[in-house]
Amino acid sequence: MARNFINLDVNPCKMCMPMGAAIAFKGIEKSILMMHGSQGCSTYMRRHMATHYNEPVDIASSSLTEQGTVYGGENNLKKGLRNTIQLYQPKVIGVVTTCLAETIGEDIDRLINEFVAEEEIAKDITFIPVATPGYGGTEYEGYYLSLRKMVERLAEEGSNDKVNIIAGNLTPAEIRRIKEILESFSISYNLLPDISKTLDAPYSKDYQKLPDGGTTIEEIKSMGGAKATIELGALLDEKISAGQFLEDEFRIPLYRVALPIGLANVDKFINALSKVTGAKPDPKLTEARGRMLDAMVDSHKYNAQGRAAIFGQPELVYSIATLCLENGLVPALLATGAKTSKLEELLKKDFGLAVEDTVIIDDTDFDTIRDYVNKLDVNILIGHSDGKFITERDGIPLVRVGFPIHDRVGGQRKVTIGYDGSVNFLDEITNTLLDRKYSSYREDMYDKHFTG
Amino acid sequence: MIDNKNLLENLLSAYPGKSMKNRKEHMMIKDSGEEKQHIMANTRTVPGIMTNRGCAYAGCKGVVLGPLKDVVHITHGPIGCSYYTWGTRRHKGRAKDGEKNFISYSFSTDMQDPDIVFGGERKLKQAIKEAVEIFEPEAISISATCPVGLIGDDINAVAKEAQAEYGIPVLAFSCEGYKGVSQSAGHHIANNNFMENVVGTKDREPKTKYPINLLGEYNIGGDGFEISRILDKIGYDVVSIMTGDGTLEEIKEAHTADLNLVQCHRSINYIAEMMEEKYGIPWLKINFIGVQGTIETLRNMAKYFDDEELIQRTEEVIEEELGEIKDVIAQYKKMCEGNTACLFVGGSRAHHYQNLFKEIGIETVVAGYEFGHRDDYEGREIIPDIEMTADDRNIPELKVTKDEKRYKLRLSEERYEQLKKEMPLGEYKGLVTAMEDGQILIDDLNHYETEVLLDALKPAVFGSGIKDKYVAQKMGIFSKQLHSYDYSGPYAGFKGAVNFARDISAGINTPTWNYITAPWKNDPEIEAELGGAS
Ligand code: SF4
Ligand code: SF4
Predict the structure, then answer these.
(1) Catalytic residue check, B58
(2) Is residue B508 part of a domain?
(3) DSSP track, B191-211
(4) A273 & A297 share domain
(5) A14 near B CB under 8 A
(6) Are A332 and A264 members of one domain?
(7) Same domain, A339 and A232
(8) ipTM over 0.90
(9) Which residues does chain A have within 8 Å of residue B16's beta carbon, measured at their own beta carbons?
(10) Is B333 exposed, middle or buried (0-12, 13-18, 19+ CB in 10 A)?
(11) Phi/psi at A32 (5° precision)
(12) Using CA atoms, how far apart are residues A294 and A423, in angstroms rounded to an integer?
């Protein structure tokens, strides 16, 4: 069963759509997000992003009040846009909706068109409206949908030598790692989105309202003429795939690969790069691969004792599950709050029998996850901070990864992708298992000799 | 010397005309030479300026209801709102023997597309049923989020039906996020419901001679634990706490207390007022933040009860507690002395924390509230002059009358009047009283204004929330979250003051600030080699 209760979500394992949009738009150069609705949503999302990224997170709101719900939110939205433009001078404004705006039926496409026609100050600004009702999906869909809308709006027909990389919801440090890999292939690329600096900016005396970095509009435009797209996301629906749009609209070959965590997934990513560039990977990469393999062989005996519960956004769950599988660590439970049947399909397809004893649930909550964790004798949790709910009750250790990590520092700097990242991550998992083994060993000894 | 007047003018000049006019009214430079100074507050947020304010749901479910540990709090709405209030305010709750504790849970009806189209009442009913069957709570609260009111779900009817069916209180809060102008609306909605449906529904015999309620204390970071420790030590009988580490069961008996202590005036003054009307319980504005604040509060309380034994016991406890912390605080004071702070928090903390900062030698130069009203700035005497806006009218004003059976006069009229002269009995004089001439009060501060003010004033510490914390820290200014304490606390009472002094001192004096300039930046030779680039 996906959830203990049909009508009650107890301790959610998901957030709402606009949250995903907020992260995606942070990866666009000099952009700002306007949430059309009442201000609570934007305040909450800023709060959550700030605890994870430890960066200022500016998200504007049209601050609708009761009056707006009766007469429509047009005035508030336009006024809000004027103020935001004046104070921030952004190049791009993403305009997304919240539940309130969607429920009262706001047509943001029309409102934006009007605004652009009416306002002088709107002339040099690129607007990207995205409908993201909170009840329409989770942050997972909100993230990819926003990327697709950016591309739909901006990509232009053409022909260039670039490769498009559509990044999944990775950490800023991981985006930096992706860039290093791309640079090792000496290709020019469009990386969408690029949060490497915007959500992990270096300390600098001169505070910048809109931090440097991010994908430029020109880059998104040129995506329509690239020679290939590599989309990091194995499970996403075509309707929210930017890569799919580029293929349908501009016939750009699409390689869809999983988040490059785990040897096989990194291989696939590197292989795709190799294919589209016609170049062999840099020896440094093959060396790193060899080292990872070496490490896998070395720690196999410990990992074989692991039974993991992996939870969070579907792409991350999928990739970590494959990392576990290739290391003999049983992914006893795979859980996501989003709705997807792909997780199961794909794993069965790729790993067949090996996932026989894996329970896979979607559209779930932590109350349900906890029950399975206990039923399935899980001894390690892998996922974002909210899993601590289970750790606190049942004492099962949690390896933190994904979004949000709000009770530890460094979530934004964590790297689990690539050969190096994967192997470090694997070490962390292995060591957590070892920690547990030794501490319970000590406890057993203590119980045996000093008590009872 | 910075000219604050110029500073504000500069700051305002970046706004488009109308917004400038609006924002200007929300700022004030204190000048006690003027007879009465005013500041605008609790009006609609200017859209698009990155306000720090939240919504009514945040104030109702997040702030006031959330800490009640024996209640299953169901958020009726799409998942986000419920997720974002899950454990984020760090209100702690310890269950006593046999008590239920749902504090680490988040319950949501997780409305989906079809629920928005066809209505969510059925789902809500089922969700309540599921919650009752599995969790067996003492009570259930239902908080509505934005879409609920718009699609016409009647949560009151659902609550009534469920209450009859399951025989436990089921309270419905129509705290849709768009109501009012900030979380403040939600506080009011929560207060009304407690008053209407909870307080006075169960009687209780006092355990000591001094039964009290502690209102507007939410046990953030364990503040309430420290306050309760002190009150227990002196011998008070805490009937109920609204709502930190509290239970709905206790609130039912709140009418049996003889004094209401009001910590956060903004969020809870409604119920304090109504309980005075209805049951005759006077309320006292207190402040358990800061050593002097705590001492003064304890002395006022003792004086209120006018009991020699209590007065003596209070002094003993004060002396004992002070003895334990005096030297440590003095130590930290040496390390912090001479610095300044800017405070922008909530509806009371920008005031409460000024004492504590002062005790470690730090002066507050700018202060403001996120969702305060004019009375929180100017004092309660301004209340009759505050104009009702359309947004205010959307929150029902609850009229209470004397409960003939339970009303009890606690003080004679003369004594009340006498005490009023000696302590803030039924009175709050506002933030402005804490400020010096020339200092800035600012309402609903936003990111842009934060930057300008911090850049010009360069305080050693900015006390605020997580959303603007990193704006400050990116500018090299240590920022302390005064909403959630950065996973630290408690900061209240005597022991809390030590924690606070330690944390502030560590923040101001962290060695990290010494490494801001890279060595090659100071070395002219290297700089030349690099061609001046960095
Ligand atoms: S679920 Fe809807 S109302 Fe709630 S925070 Fe998300 S967008 Fe806002
Ligand atoms: S404003 Fe409305 S939708 Fe947003 S968080 Fe508040 S209640 Fe939820």
Answers:
(1) yes
(2) no
(3) HHHHHHHTTTSS----SSS-E
(4) no
(5) yes
(6) no
(7) no
(8) yes
(9) 82-83, 86
(10) middle
(11) -140, 150
(12) 10
What angle (nearest 5°) sits at the alpha carbon of residue A170, between those of residues B465 and A2?
90
Give per-residue pLDDT as tens, B411-465: 999 999 999 999 999 999 999 999 999 999 999 999 899 999 999 999 999 999 9
Together in a domain, A237 and A334: no
B81 within ligand 1 shell (Cβ under 6 A): yes
Q: Using the 3D structure, point to which of A277, A310, A333 is the last residue of a domain.
A: A277
Set B23, B73, B187, B374: catalytic member? B187
Asked if A32 and A96 count as a contact pair (C-beta separation under 8 A), the reply is no
Q: With beta carbons less than 8 A apart as the criterion, state whether B192 and B398 touch.
A: yes
Where in the sequence is the domain holding A441, given as residue range(s)?
A: 293-450
The dihedral over CA atoms of B512, B487, A14, A94, expressed in degrees to the nearest 10, equals -50
**Do residues B310 and B210 make contact, with C-beta atoms less than 8 angstroms apart?**
yes
Q: State whether residue B169 sits within 8 Å of chain A by CB.
A: no
**Domain total in chain A:** 3
Does residue B35 lie in a domain region? no
User: Residue A376 is part of a domain; what is its CATH number?
Assistant: 3.40.50.1980
In a domain, B412, yes or no: no
Residue B236 has pLDDT above 80, yes or no: yes
- What is the per-residue pLDDT for B534? 38
Do A380 and A264 lie in one domain? The reply is no
Could you read off the pLDDT of B484-530 as tens digits, one per residue? 898 899 999 999 999 999 999 999 999 998 888 888 877 666 555 55
Please state whether the peptide bond connecting residue A129 to the residue before it is cis, i.e. omega within 30 degrees of 0. no
Q: What is the pLDDT of residues A187-238, one digit of tens each?
A: 999 999 999 999 999 998 778 889 999 999 999 999 999 999 999 999 999 9
Tokens 């030598």 appear where?
A161
d(CA B183, CA B59): 4
* Number of domains comprising chain B: 1
**CA–CA separation, A121 and A87 (whole Å):** 12
Find the domain containing B87 and state its range.
56-178
Cite the DSSP H helix spans in B198-290: 223-234, 248-252, 265-279
Residue A207 belongs to a domain: yes
> Hey, are the CB atoms on B390 and A67 less than 8 Å from each other?
yes
Q: Would residue B18 count as lying in a domain?
A: no
Distance in angstroms (rounded) separating the CA atoms of residues A214 and A355: 39
pLDDT of residue B531: 47
